[in-house]
Amino acid sequence: MDKRNAGTAGRDKKGLVALMLAGLVAGMVGLSFAAVPLYRMFCQATGYGGVPQVADVAPDKVLDRKIKVRFDTNVDRELPWQFSAEQRSVDVRIGESTLVFFRAHNNTDKSVSGTAGFNVSPEIAGRYFTKIECFCFKQQTLAAGQSVEMPVTFFIDPEFADDESTKNIEEITLSYTFYRSDDPSDVATAPGNRASGS
What pTM was computed for the model? Predict the structure, then answer.
């Protein structure tokens, strides 16, 4: 092999290595963007991290065993709303469809949008705590000074009673945190109403 061919081969190898490294970097960047939605789908499918399940209808089977479900509500500092559960807790039979209401109020003189994050504790209960209807499934927009009732329909899957790891659980907490989902600079925040919780 003459020097000219050796130089070309060396450049080809360097170009191939550079191309492989660029592809590796691009793949890692792509995976980092995909990680959050993939993790969210995993949590929703398995209940990992206390993420509740979603169903269209409640099961036919309702057990006599009751569980107390408590409600925890929070509002991020950037969202000028008040948000609370209309009941602090309910006692529900396993498998029974239950409807509860939350109330949100916009403390400003302009429309504001928010989205609720949610989880269940203890975490193991997330795989059995199932929502049929929830305000948390989509963004909520409240007009200036508006108050609204927000329904949640849920049930606890009867398989909860058959799981050895949940047999001693007598209480579940459903937690919501509302986060702002529009541009904060578009809204004049009412003084003294930057944060709330219950």
Answer: 0.67
Contact of 174 with 71, CB cutoff 8 Å: yes
Single-letter code of the amino acid located at 169: I
Euclidean distance between CA atoms 154 and 160, whole angstroms: 14
Cβ–Cβ under 8 Å, residues 73 and 102: yes
Helix (H, G, I), strand (E, B) or coil at 110: coil
How confident is residue 63, by pLDDT bands cut at 50, 70 and 90? very high
User: What is the DSSP track for 137-186?
Assistant: GS-EEE-TT-EEEEEEEEEE-GGGGG-GGGTT--EEEEEEEEEE-S-GGG
Q: Which fold has domain 53-197?
A: Ctag/Cox11 (Pfam 04442) (2.60.370)
Question: What are the tens digits of pLDDT across the range 114-167?
Answer: 999 999 999 999 999 999 999 999 999 999 999 999 999 999 999 999 999 999
